[in-house]
Design brief:
The protein has 143 residues and is mainly α. The chain has 6 helices and no strands. The protein is globular and about 45 Å long.
Length: 143
């Protein structure tokens, strides 16, 4: 849709300014999803997971406004990793194998993004931090 509207030139979003519209739409759709679907009292874990996603999207959008291209792959994977860590803490269950799997996935994804020359190491680290911090910030509400 964005390509047809000529807001982006390619689906790979190689330019930082091309990331703004997709991130803005993601923020809008995530906000609508949170407001219309989830109730913070029924399933607080899932509710705050999506609040963390909204925070990560907002962080990536702000970085795009500052002309910095954080890795969206790393934001997503580190967000899920820290959500699983939160689930493990919240329910007091051993999810170490799943956590180890996500750590491996983060490393494999970072390696592939470097190999493809899609990102610099700084962009990958900032992406990891944005995803992790966005989930970590909502821990105090549901853990």
């Amino acid at each position: 849709m964005l390509k047809n509207l000529q807001l982006v030139t390619t689906i790979h979003l190689k330019e930082v300014k091309e990331r703004r519209w997709p991130l803005l739409l993601q923020m809008l759709f995530t906000f609508i999803l949170i407001r219309l679907i989830f109730d913070g009292y029924e399933i607080p874990e899932l509710y705050y997971f999506f609040v963390g996603i909204l925070g990560a999207s907002t962080g990536a959008f702000l970085l795009a406004l500052l002309k910095f291209k954080a890795s969206l792959h790393m934001i997503a994977l580190s967000g899920v990793l820290f959500f699983v860590v939160g689930l493990s803490l919240h329910f007091g269950i051993n999810l170490l194998l799943l956590i180890a799997g996500f750590i491996f996935a983060c490393g494999a994804t970072a390696t592939s993004r470097l190999d493809m020359r899609a990102h610099t190491p700084a962009e990958l680290v900032v992406g990891f931090i944005v995803g992790a911090v966005s989930q970590f910030m909502v821990y105090s509400y549901w853990i």
